[in-house]
Design a protein that fits this description.
four-stranded antiparallel beta sheet; seven-stranded mixed beta sheet; Gyrase A, domain 2; binds zinc ion; Alkaline Phosphatase, subunit A; 20 strands; 2 domains; 15 helices; alpha/beta; disordered N terminus
Length: about 450
């Protein structure tokens, strides 16, 4: 009841002050720091070079594993972490919206789509904002054009944005570097600038909810493989970013009311063989070359350990679904072909709900990854690299969950949890409720 009165009071105080609002010293603060692609199994290595993360675990809790949603891809899982619902509900299946050119050319994933058009679920930051709490995001995804955010340093920074200007004024970065942010720079540099942005937001504004996403762990594992020496360098650097963030809360004198969730969106697996389903569709004459461009009514969209098959013409589905199911099931490197009710069991939306829903899903065997290419050999062998996208029951896909700080009890055993439990738990700490969440809040870890 007191909390309810407080929230009504807070809503009155902060309404209409987006951009200028400031938390008061009595309000809870929650940080969600996502280390992209950090596999939970890395935590089992006693020589993992992450002393700051270990200290947070010693003071709080760590799950043995956190099961991501399908597809085990970045944007779908970051969306689940802040909505508590799976892809059947939020309908984010790629790192953006899948769009189908009328020419029949390859469907394209477009990232810069407004949140309301892409994400079909209410998020934590919208809920928090509705109740007068302040919110911020740094490099979070599926958040373009979203309402309910007081401070942002987006994946594509705006050199005229207030946080960006702070960093330029402090000489952490130049305006030119912000204008060319995606080019000619290393994953570590991006993580450094994003951390500078998060530290700036914490010190100047101390929002009630900060969503903060770091990417170097994902980039390095894609290039060199999971749990390789290069991956360990990325894990070690991520730990220094956590330490910098903790120091910012210490400097802002807000550490004692802040709860940290250090999570990942999915795990990682290494592979050396690739499978190209579009080459099979070309051999089946379901795709052709027109004016130098590949076109067809059936396309495979590769997402590492998964390939989504889209049969665009509904009248062709009755014939093609069984034919392609048996053809792909016999293909080297394919573990299973999911169709019909099996797709719903994966937590994917149906074709009646959205054009984002595939008609078939191929899962890769261990050591194989799907490619988008339309020519060359169906199966190829190469150097070891890393990927994700395998079905969410795969042990390598299990994600990181660490909670520590003001609201968290120490040493509560958790076993394996679902990432659908994160958002409702955070809502509880903030005195809110995410009505649509599918996961149960982790009440046992809360003080
Ligand atoms: Zn990711």
């Amino acid at each position: 009841m007191m909390r309810k009165i407080f929230l009504v009071f807070a809503a009155l105080c902060f309404s209409g002050t987006i951009g200028r609002a400031q938390t008061t010293a009595s309000q809870p603060i929650v940080v969600v720091l996502s280390l992209d692609g950090f596999p939970s199994r890395a935590l089992k290595d006693p020589r993992l070079p992450m002393p700051t993360l270990r200290k947070l675990i010693a003071d709080g809790v760590a799950a043995d594993a956190m099961t991501p949603v399908n597809p085990t891809v970045t944007w779908p899982n970051h969306t689940s972490l802040v909505t508590g619902v799976d892809a059947a509900h939020h309908q984010v299946l790629f790192n953006g919206l899948l769009t189908f050119p009328s020419s029949g050319a390859e469907p394209l994933v477009k990232p810069w789509i407004n949140k309301d058009e892409l994400v079909h679920a209410k998020t934590l930051y919208e809920l928090a904002s509705d109740h007068g709490l302040t919110t911020a995001q740094v490099d979070w995804v599926a958040i373009y054009g979203a309402r309910g955010l007081n401070w942002s340093f987006p994946e594509r920074p705006d050199p005229d944005g207030p946080i960006e200007r702070d960093l330029v004024d402090e000489k952490f970065v130049t305006r030119e570097e912000l204008e060319n942010f995606g080019e000619d720079s290393s994953p570590a540099w991006h993580d450094q600038v994003w951390t500078d942005a998060a530290v700036d937001i914490v010190k100047r504004h101390t929002p009630n909810l900060l969503l903060f996403h770091l990417l170097a762990t994902d980039s390095l594992q894609h290039r060199y493989g999971a749990l390789t020496p290069a991956a360990y360098e990325a894990y070690a650097y991520a730990d220094t970013r956590i330490a910098a963030l903790l120091q910012a809360f210490r400097d802002a004198k807000a550490l004692d009311r802040t709860t940290f969730f250090i999570v990942s969106d999915h795990g990682f697996a290494s592979f050396s063989h690739t499978v190209s389903p579009n080459v099979v569709l070309m051999q089946d004459h379901l795709m052709h070359v027109e004016n130098g461009q590949y076109a067809g009514d059936v396309w495979a969209k590769a997402e590492g350990g998964t390939a989504m098959i889209y049969i665009r013409k509904p009248e062709q589905r009755a014939e093609l679904i069984p034919k392609l199911t048996s053809e792909f099931a016999a293909l080297e490197g394919v573990e299973h072909v999911y169709e019909g009710k099996e797709l719903e069991a994966l937590g994917l939306p149906t074709s009646d709900q959205t054009d984002q829903a595939p008609q078939l899903v191929l899962s890769a065997k261990s050591g194989y990854s799907f490619l988008a290419q339309t020519q060359g050999n169906v199966i190829q062998n190469g150097a070891i690299r890393g990927t994700h996208g395998y079905v969410n029951t795969n042990p390598d896909m299990q994600a990181l969950f660490v909670a520590s700080g003001a609201a968290i009890r120490q040493g509560v055993p958790l076993g394996t949890i679902s990432n659908l439990q994160v958002a409702p738990t955070i809502a509880m700490i903030l005195g809110l409720k995410l009505d649509a969440a599918q996961g149960e809040p982790l009440k046992s870890i809360l003080k």
